Model the fold of this input.
Amino acid sequence: MVATPRVLVLNGPNLNLLGTRQPEIYGTETLDDIINLLRTQAMMAGWELGALQSNHEGELIDAIHAARLNGTLAIIINPAAYSHTSVALLDALNTFDGKVIEVHLSNIHKREAFRHHSYISQRADGVIAGLGSLGYQAALNAIVATLKSD
Done:
Protein backbone atom coordinates (compact mmCIF):
# COMPACT_ATOMS: atom_id res chain seq x y z
CA MET A 1 0.00 0.00 0.00
CA VAL A 2 1.36 3.42 -0.97
CA ALA A 3 1.38 6.01 1.81
CA THR A 4 -0.48 9.27 1.28
CA PRO A 5 2.06 12.03 0.61
CA ARG A 6 2.33 14.45 3.52
CA VAL A 7 3.05 18.19 3.68
CA LEU A 8 3.53 20.19 6.87
CA VAL A 9 2.51 23.85 7.17
CA LEU A 10 4.39 25.73 9.89
CA ASN A 11 3.50 29.23 11.05
CA GLY A 12 5.59 31.32 13.38
CA PRO A 13 4.94 33.93 16.03
CA ASN A 14 1.87 36.16 16.07
CA LEU A 15 0.24 34.43 13.10
CA ASN A 16 -2.39 33.12 15.53
CA LEU A 17 -3.65 36.73 15.48
CA LEU A 18 -4.37 36.81 11.75
CA GLY A 19 -7.67 38.45 10.96
CA THR A 20 -7.35 40.96 13.78
CA ARG A 21 -3.67 41.99 13.78
CA GLN A 22 -2.90 44.75 11.28
CA PRO A 23 -5.48 43.67 8.69
CA GLU A 24 -4.21 46.41 6.36
CA ILE A 25 -0.97 44.40 6.08
CA TYR A 26 -2.03 40.80 6.74
CA GLY A 27 -5.64 40.71 5.58
CA THR A 28 -8.79 39.67 7.40
CA GLU A 29 -8.63 35.89 7.01
CA THR A 30 -7.78 33.96 10.13
CA LEU A 31 -5.09 31.31 10.23
CA ASP A 32 -7.86 28.71 10.68
CA ASP A 33 -9.47 29.98 7.45
CA ILE A 34 -6.19 29.54 5.60
CA ILE A 35 -5.44 26.09 7.03
CA ASN A 36 -8.97 24.82 6.35
CA LEU A 37 -8.69 25.92 2.72
CA LEU A 38 -5.28 24.25 2.44
CA ARG A 39 -6.59 21.01 3.96
CA THR A 40 -9.32 20.89 1.31
CA GLN A 41 -6.83 21.71 -1.44
CA ALA A 42 -4.44 19.00 -0.20
CA MET A 43 -7.21 16.41 0.11
CA MET A 44 -8.36 17.13 -3.46
CA ALA A 45 -4.78 16.49 -4.62
CA GLY A 46 -4.53 13.26 -2.61
CA TRP A 47 -2.23 14.71 0.04
CA GLU A 48 -2.36 14.79 3.83
CA LEU A 49 -1.74 18.18 5.43
CA GLY A 50 -0.46 18.77 8.94
CA ALA A 51 -0.32 22.24 10.45
CA LEU A 52 1.24 23.93 13.45
CA GLN A 53 1.41 27.52 14.60
CA SER A 54 3.66 28.40 17.48
CA ASN A 55 4.98 31.50 19.14
CA HIS A 56 7.87 29.35 20.42
CA GLU A 57 10.90 28.73 18.23
CA GLY A 58 11.74 25.39 19.85
CA GLU A 59 8.30 23.99 19.11
CA LEU A 60 8.74 24.81 15.41
CA ILE A 61 12.19 23.19 15.45
CA ASP A 62 10.75 20.05 17.11
CA ALA A 63 8.10 19.85 14.37
CA ILE A 64 10.80 20.04 11.67
CA HIS A 65 12.77 17.30 13.41
CA ALA A 66 9.64 15.12 13.58
CA ALA A 67 8.95 15.75 9.88
CA ARG A 68 12.33 14.23 9.05
CA LEU A 69 11.15 10.92 10.48
CA ASN A 70 7.41 10.68 9.77
CA GLY A 71 7.34 10.62 5.98
CA THR A 72 6.71 14.31 5.40
CA LEU A 73 7.76 15.17 1.86
CA ALA A 74 7.56 18.96 2.06
CA ILE A 75 7.28 21.89 4.45
CA ILE A 76 5.53 25.18 3.79
CA ILE A 77 6.80 27.63 6.38
CA ASN A 78 5.84 31.16 7.27
CA PRO A 79 8.44 31.81 9.93
CA ALA A 80 7.11 35.35 10.50
CA ALA A 81 9.59 37.40 12.55
CA TYR A 82 11.83 34.34 12.96
CA SER A 83 12.68 34.77 9.25
CA HIS A 84 14.97 37.62 10.17
CA THR A 85 16.48 36.24 13.36
CA SER A 86 16.54 32.45 13.54
CA VAL A 87 19.66 30.61 12.56
CA ALA A 88 18.25 27.77 14.67
CA LEU A 89 15.24 27.36 12.34
CA LEU A 90 17.59 27.47 9.35
CA ASP A 91 19.76 24.76 10.92
CA ALA A 92 16.71 22.58 11.57
CA LEU A 93 15.44 23.02 8.01
CA ASN A 94 18.90 22.10 6.72
CA THR A 95 18.41 18.65 8.31
CA PHE A 96 15.16 18.11 6.36
CA ASP A 97 15.62 16.41 2.97
CA GLY A 98 12.26 17.33 1.44
CA LYS A 99 11.04 20.44 -0.35
CA VAL A 100 10.76 23.68 1.61
CA ILE A 101 8.76 26.69 0.48
CA GLU A 102 8.87 29.90 2.49
CA VAL A 103 5.70 32.02 2.48
CA HIS A 104 5.10 35.57 3.66
CA LEU A 105 1.68 37.21 3.55
CA SER A 106 3.20 40.66 3.01
CA ASN A 107 6.00 41.64 0.68
CA ILE A 108 8.89 41.73 3.14
CA HIS A 109 10.98 43.70 0.64
CA LYS A 110 8.54 46.64 0.77
CA ARG A 111 8.66 46.82 4.55
CA GLU A 112 11.24 47.87 7.13
CA ALA A 113 14.86 47.26 6.10
CA PHE A 114 15.43 44.64 8.82
CA ARG A 115 12.70 42.48 7.20
CA HIS A 116 14.47 42.36 3.82
CA HIS A 117 16.77 39.51 4.89
CA SER A 118 15.48 36.03 5.66
CA TYR A 119 17.75 33.32 7.02
CA ILE A 120 15.14 30.76 5.98
CA SER A 121 15.45 31.72 2.30
CA GLN A 122 18.93 30.18 2.29
CA ARG A 123 17.30 26.74 2.61
CA ALA A 124 14.01 27.33 0.81
CA ASP A 125 13.46 25.79 -2.62
CA GLY A 126 11.06 28.66 -3.31
CA VAL A 127 9.94 31.90 -1.65
CA ILE A 128 6.51 33.50 -2.06
CA ALA A 129 5.93 36.95 -0.59
CA GLY A 130 3.21 39.55 -0.88
CA LEU A 131 0.32 37.44 -2.20
CA GLY A 132 -1.55 37.22 1.09
CA SER A 133 -3.13 33.85 1.77
CA LEU A 134 -2.88 32.98 -1.93
CA GLY A 135 0.82 32.46 -1.30
CA TYR A 136 0.06 29.36 0.78
CA GLN A 137 -2.13 27.96 -1.99
CA ALA A 138 0.56 28.65 -4.59
CA ALA A 139 3.13 26.91 -2.39
CA LEU A 140 0.95 23.82 -2.05
CA ASN A 141 0.27 23.79 -5.80
CA ALA A 142 4.01 23.98 -6.48
CA ILE A 143 4.77 21.14 -4.08
CA VAL A 144 2.10 18.86 -5.52
CA ALA A 145 3.17 19.62 -9.11
CA THR A 146 6.89 19.32 -8.40
CA LEU A 147 6.74 16.12 -6.41
CA LYS A 148 4.25 14.57 -8.81
CA SER A 149 6.77 15.04 -11.63
CA ASP A 150 9.76 13.70 -9.61
Notes: The first helix runs from residue 23 to 26. DSSP finds five helices and five strands in the chain.
